[in-house]
Design a protein that fits this description.
The protein has 245 residues and is an alpha/beta fold. It is 36% helix and 30% strand. The protein has seven helices and ten strands. Strand 3, helix 2 and strand 4 form a beta-alpha-beta unit. The protein is globular.
């Protein structure tokens, strides 16, 4: 009988809880990845992954679990907490180098209560239409937010990157987008979610080419950046720290 994996979102914001039950193996690993990315895409302040009723079928399946959880843990500054893992799973998770930032907790209810006591990061969300005016709107929003957060050292670079992220949606995705700007732990984070599943690629334009430098610029000006694919589109995200602005 084929194995089954059930991934049920218990809540999304401000703290997301994803309940995972059943058997994780080579056939069900993709479903876990889809569910984790979906929970991260709404950009909660923290993601709690309740695996108390999850059975990891074999070492290969655990590699799938580790790759899903650990490789998405850097998505824009959203801490992931694995709750209720058995001792073997916790030990195996801790042994994966990419999982150094992944927290563990014995009980998800206690972890949720603890997350609720932590001050929420500064965050602004806005929906934008895929029109050229969106670039001017997002620059104005970044200017105001950095001034309000007293982080003027970020303003010029953040406004430039935000413009490029939004312009890529206007030029290529042609869908309504959600722009999120956050300030946490000395970092500025930005993310743009759109409805196109076409993943962007940084090009290598020639000296005489008029365009193609947008994502290359984002890469060079960011501490880190990436693309989170989801079932209904993607999220392009970036982190900034003062030393790179």
């Amino acid at each position: 009988m084929p194995s089954q994996l059930v991934c049920r979102p218990e809540r999304d914001l401000p703290v997301a809880v994803l309940n995972v039950s059943g058997t994780l193996d080579s056939l069900t690993g993709d479903a876990l990845g889809v569910a984790v990315r979906r929970s991260l895409a709404v950009q909660p302040v923290k993601l709690l992954l309740d695996v108390s009723r999850l059975r990891v079928a074999d070492p290969f399946a655990f590699g799938t679990f580790g790759s899903v959880v650990c490789q998405t843990a850097e998505f824009p500054n959203v801490p992931i907490v694995v709750c209720g893992a058995d001792p073997g799973t916790s030990a195996a998770l801790a042994a994966i180098p990419d999982c150094a930032t992944v927290e563990t907790a014995d009980d998800c209810a206690a972890a949720l209560a603890e997350a609720g006591r932590v001050p929420r990061p500064d965050r602004i969300r806005v929906r934008l239409r895929p029109v050229p005016e969106a670039c001017r709107q997002v620059r104005h929003l970044v200017d105001q937010a950095c001034a309000g957060w007293h982080r003027s050292e970020f303003t010029a670079t953040a406004a430039l990157i935000a413009t490029e992220l939004v312009a890529n949606v206007v030029r290529h995705a042609h869908t309504t987008m959600e722009f999120t700007l956050g300030h946490r732990d000395g970092r500025i984070t930005m993310a743009v979610r759109d409805g196109s599943r076409h993943l962007p690629k940084a090009l290598q334009p020639g000296l005489t080419d008029a365009g193609g430098r947008g994502l290359r610029l984002v890469r060079e000006l960011s501490e880190n950046w990436g693309v989170l694919p989801v079932s209904d589109g993607k999220v392009v995200w970036t982190h900034l720290i003062p030393g790179l602005t």
